[in-house]
Amino acid sequence: xxxxxxxxxxxxxxxxxxxxxxxxxxxxxxxxxxxxxxxxxxxxxxxxxxxxxxxxxxxxxxxxxxxxxxxxxxxxxxxxxxxxxxxxxxxxxxxxxxxxxxxxxxxxxxxxxxxxxxxxxxxxxxxxxxxxxxxxxxxxxxxxxxxxxxxxxxxxxxxxxxxxxxxxxxxxxxxxxxxxxxxxxxxxxxxxxxxxxxxxxxxxxxxxxxxxxxxxxxxxxxxxxxxxxxxxxxxxxxxxxxxxxxxxxxxxxxxxxxxxxxxxxxxxxxxxxxxxxxxxxxxxxxxxxxxxxxxxx
Length: 297
Ligand code: NDP
Hints:
Blueprint: E1 5-6, H1 9-31, E2 36-42, H2 46-61, E3 65-71, H3 77-89, E4 95-98, H4 108-114, H5 126-133, H6 144-155, E5 164-168, H7 175-184, E6 188-192, H8 199-204, E7 208-211, E8 229-232, E9 236-239, E10 247-250, H9 255-259, E11 264-265, H10 273-292
Parallel strand pairs: 1-11, 2-3, 2-4, 5-6, 5-7, 7-8, 8-11
Antiparallel strand pairs: 9-10
Helix pairs in contact: 1-10, 2-10, 6-7, 6-10
Bound molecules: NADPH dihydro-nicotinamide-adenine-dinucleotide phosphate.
Family: Belongs to the tetrahydrofolate dehydrogenase/cyclohydrolase family.
GO cellular component, one term: cytosol
Domain Tetrahydrofolate dehydrogenase/cyclohydrolase catalytic: 7-122
């Protein structure tokens, strides 16, 4: 017991970023062009500023060209739509990301719908999610965090075909696309949400558990089927007087308890988190290759 293999998302994300940098160099050599990502930030939320900064830094590190527009908190919806329209039309921009949440007076759906689906690297456009959900179709982009969860499973050699999976959470940005992706890999998927009468009972039957409920350590160790693989998407700050900042980060899974039963598990931090930006880079590279035209070798 207690011997769960730790799935090292930080290391896997680093490997992927190195692979991307090599591909970018090859693309530049063949076409003279680099993938371009535009990040739109409205307002001055500290957390959003931090995310945007790290996304831009990650772009620079793999050789992308990065574009950015920062608008003030009181920018109008039309101003945001104008910025999106400008990037839609710019041939040097292959991916557009609008950092969420937007200020309350702006209709988030209208802004996301305005992003060209060919540049929708966050994969939040309803047409991309719809294509993910339909048999025989493939989306141009899959959202970064869900894609990162699947990539972790793949690179850890976890077989999904014929397995049972439980996804805790059904949000548009995590739970729903994760469930669709697992189903596309031929897992039999059950989704758990806040109205599920007995979440523990559903999770106990699962060979693969993805937790994305935004509730600190809600998924208890004794919910985990012995030998199951656990992907913990949650990022929750809990007060901790002993920690330097006065808080520490925990997942949506009771990590210690789950380690007693799982065969493999992602830690928080250092699991799914680092994969999100790696997948954003991968989506932008894929989009750039489609838009530039694949190099002739
Ligand atoms: P949301 O709050 O949008 O969704 C939470 C989901 O969990 C909802 O579907 C909700 O159900 C369900 N839920 C809430 N309480 C319970 C409960 N008691 N039992 C069962 N289900 C419950 O969160 P997100 O999907 O945006 O994020 C989920 C977690 O992942 C968060 O901790 C977030 O911080 C983290 N996250 C991490 C990312 C990363 O690693 N890069 C990126 C994005 C998110 P209902 O639909 O019924 O309300």
